[in-house]
Write a structure and sequence with these properties.
Elements (H helix, E strand, L loop, with lengths): L3 E8 L13 E8 L4 E5 L6 H9 L6 E6 L2 E2 L5 H4 L1 E4 L11 H10 L5 H15 L14 H13 L6 E5 L7 H18 L3 E5 L2 H7 L2 E6 L2 E6 L1 H6 L4 H6 L6 E4 L1 E3 L2 E4 L2 E3 L13 E5 L4 E4 L3 E10 L4 E7 L2 E7 L9 E6 L5 E4 L2 E2 L16
Parallel strand pairs: 3-8, 3-9, 6-7, 7-8
Antiparallel strand pairs: 1-2, 1-4, 4-5, 9-10, 11-15, 12-13, 13-14, 15-21, 16-20, 17-18, 17-20, 18-19, 21-22
Helix pairs in contact: 3-4, 3-5
Amino acid sequence: MAKITLKNLRHSYYTNPKGPQDFALKEVDLDWQDGGAYALLGPSGCGKSTLLNIISGLLVPSEGQILFDGNDMTTATPDQRNIAQVFQFPVIYDTMTVRENLAFPLKNRGVDPATIDQRVYEIAEMLEVTDMLDRRAAGLSPDNKQKISMGRGLVRDDVNVVMFDEPLTVIDPHLKWKLRTKLKELHQRVGRTMIYVTHDQTEALTFADQVVVMELGEVVQVGTPVELFERPAHTFVGHFIGSPGMNVLPAEIKNGVAHFYGHPVELEGPIKEGTSGKLEVGIRPEFVGLGDTGIEAHVRKVSDIGKHTVVDVEVGEHRVSAILNGAPPAKGDIVHLQFKPSQTRLYADGWLATDVVPESTATGEDAA
């Protein structure tokens, strides 16, 4: 296993990049601790695959360094980096048995037969496939094939990191939760550094202890699932994580107070000094309530999704979503919105522009 450090990393597919717009991966500085569970999360084209290929050694970055336990591995080959990788589509040999597939990475490295048998059985038990060890891989279901592919990545105990590249893409939705649970369990049992690459927020948030959110080649936030949900550092994080995502509303500052559609809005704390640019208020639907006073809005849509109701309203031409647990209003009703101050933030050019008030000095949370 290894601590992985990415230092001043940038990459362009152009020979002579002219500016930031020519870089598929903008400057990245990250530390991944030995034994951690991490996820790279973002939409297609955000730079996840480029970063993955750089870490695995398939790409040499245009600038910067990759360190494994402090050793410079920037130009090292994938084999020299000692990385195991699990891909979108199961990489197994259909003509081999499950046992032979799991044993192959060890046999290829000259491990003795007794150790191979022991490791294969340990991994098979973890994956709950001991009853199919002597079956041909060709006859397995897609989810079991992907289990074996995962097992091939986990069977070696000398790898620095195990990387998962969209490993559940081909798995039926009703089976995905089983494999997600199994993968998390495997990490807890083997304790190896694992990096999970995905565009699916559910996969990332249920697997990783730390999630790296990427957009347009840039890391916009690194944090725990709770941190990403509760305090997005960028409006993209608020949009991308959550269902529905965070409300991002146009704002202006008058006399040091944020306003939305002419209404003063109490924020989580003071606005950072020198804040300027495109201003927006961000608040998650979970923290938008309805009351007798507040910002007047018209109900446009009410969606009952079982455990709660999503209400979409309009304030002028701006849509706001609220998640309610009580009796919802009806379509066409006039309601009054109340924003929970401790969860209401100002963003400038997409980036968080408010500070947190210490709990000892925080005010009440009932204001609109």
